[in-house]
Amino acid sequence: MASSDAVTPPTRTSVGQRLRGALRRWVGRFSGPGLAGALVCFVIALGPALIPRAAFYQGAVGGICAAIGYGVGVLLARLLRTCGVVWSRPASRWFRRGLLVAVVVGVPAALLWNATWQNEVRELFGQEPQESSRPFVVLALALVMGVLLLQVGRGLRWVTRRLARLLGRLVGRWVPRPVALLVAVVAVTWVTVSVLSGAVVDTLMSSLNTAYAQVDDGTDPGVTQPTDPLRSGSPDSSARWEDLGLQGRTFVAGGRAHEQFVDVAARTGRTADLQDPIRVYAGLRSGGTLEETAQVVVDELDRTHAWDRSVLAVVTATGTGWIDPSLADTFELLWGGDTAIASMQYSYLPSWVAFVGDRTTPPAAGKALFEAVYERWSQLPEDARPQLFVAGISLGSFGSQGAFSSAQDVAARTDGALWMGTPGFTPLWRELTDERDAGSPEITPVLDGGATARWASRPGEGDDRQLWSLGEDWQQPRIVYDQHASDGVTWWSPSLLLHKPDRLSEPRGTDVLDSTRWVPVITFWQTTIDLFVAGLAPAGHGHNYHQEYADGWAAVAPPDGWTAADTDVLREVVGSVPSVA
């Protein structure tokens, strides 16, 4: 006889149903307004920027901006609730349904938009379009980055609430709950920033310094110790080959073949004798302090009789001690080798690390090097010493300008300056840009009608010869800034978080899309990513100035009788024939 109390076996739930239920519960933990904010910021982050970027970088900036958007959405929702705005359950359901539709439509549209503008920028750069922007990789990386940052934020929120409750129990009689919460927020923020800027950053910088110091011990393939006594690191040099560092060894061993000097001289009508260029350099191990290292450079200038040359360039290197070969080669070809170039290393770290973590050493090094050279140069008779120029690219430009207080100071103590791809946080550059003549654009300012300082943003060819667009009545000494409208290194600034730059309120540069817009916070992160990809752009765009040294040096340090046609020859040789080690 069957019992009426028999138990009915439980219904088995499929794996798919369990997963869907878990996913539904997980998604339900997220704030609807927060998700809406994340979607809006993600879509905007995939919009036009300065440089095409790989899926990894695009996914990173999309995830960071989505996390920021989520926080903004949550904050706005709480403010509305505080003001008494409460949504009914049906309204909340319809909001989430609408949000789902927006995600289904908006995300694919944003990914398509991203691929479209990147190919438009490639067209401006003269590159072939990319077949795929790898949208699924972008989306996956953005999700991972966004969720990771969100969890970190939730963890900090949990700590803040626990601390606020503890304060409430301890001093609740005397301190209102909102004040306790504010104190908790301030305390957690202060501890977080202190830990990140202290223990984390210091440990990371120390580890990177150790790692790159080991790299600095190496030598690039094909680079061999010079035997020419006019080069540091040679057997005659007091600056030992082993102490010059990776980039220093490459610099002193490099240069153009003699045949290229003969070619340029013949095509430009040079009649003076050709000479072997002088290159002096001191590595980070050459001296205990920046001043001691700079003195080694001066000793090398004395040893090589560099003061007998027609021109001397003091070049501040980038973070690792790198000097752009085109900068040095162009200067030497321009003057038929009747030149001396002096530089030194001040860090093991690459520029992007120094860019973020050390902005005091580059200008200190630039000042130490220039002051040491200038002191010795000043002791020589005015009619028996070389013309003195200063130069640098990127972090080297930032460091080089650290030796001067103003444009007048540059003109008083040098015969000219060539600074390429200057970072936007450089004080002298910023001051001169802000003082530009009314109506001139930020990307190519006009200062005092172009009397002393001039800017260029494109390779100078034909009608595009910007340095001479203000006329040839240009006094010496001359200062030349070369900067591309698409170079994130020049245009990155913390002010982008909340301040619209002039360059995006004015007509765009020739290699920047008209659709590029400023959006608070989002543009800052887009430009931050542009810092890491700017050097991958083709010549004449981004942070690649390979073709513009001919125009820059010809404007700043022209030999007697030098013409625009001669500059065309120099540009052709530098751009088409490789340097040799």
From TrEMBL:
UniProtKB keywords: Membrane, Transmembrane, Transmembrane helix
Family annotation (InterPro entries): Alpha/beta-hydrolase_catalytic, Alpha/beta-hydrolase_N_dom
Task: Specify the Alpha/beta-hydrolase N-terminal domain's residue ranges.
Answer: 46-255
Q: Where is this region: Disordered?
A: 215-239
Domain (Alpha/beta-hydrolase catalytic) ranges: 278-569
TM ranges: 30-51, 57-77, 98-116, 136-159, 179-201
Q: Give the protein name, as stated in the record.
A: Membrane protein
